[in-house]
Design goal:
The chain is 26% helix and 18% strand. With 93 residues, the protein is an alpha/beta fold. The chain has a domain at 31-90. The protein has a three-stranded parallel β-sheet with strand order 2-1-3, sandwiched between helices. The longest helix has 14 residues, at 42-55. The protein is elongated and about 70 Å long.
């Protein structure tokens, strides 16, 4: 009988501990940053979230997207950091 070699693809986690950002006291008058990850339906999900946030007092939203499953460009990060009070990143398929 032939032997079958089985490989285990799991590896140890390479992520370290990180602290959560401080929570905003409220959303009134804030500018939301939205980072669309480019997956199918992510734009639809993010648009729905922005509409809900506006109903809860968010003044405006800055929306940026990234076309690949990797980090956002330095320019996108700079814009979101400078022009928004908080940023949401989501995924949808």
């Amino acid at each position: 009988m032939p032997k079958v070699r089985v490989y285990d693809p799991t590896a140890a986690s390479s992520s370290g501990a990180s602290a959560l950002a401080p929570r905003l006291p409220d959303l009134a008058g804030r500018v939301a940053g939205i980072l669309d990850n480019g997956k199918a339906n992510a734009g639809v999900l993010m648009t729905a979230i922005v509409e809900q946030l506006r109903a809860e007092g968010v003044r405006d939203a800055v929306v940026r997207s990234k076309p690949v499953a990797g980090p956002a460009s330095p320019e996108t990060i700079r814009i979101l950091k400078e022009q928004t009070d908080f940023v949401l990143v989501g995924s949808a398929d």
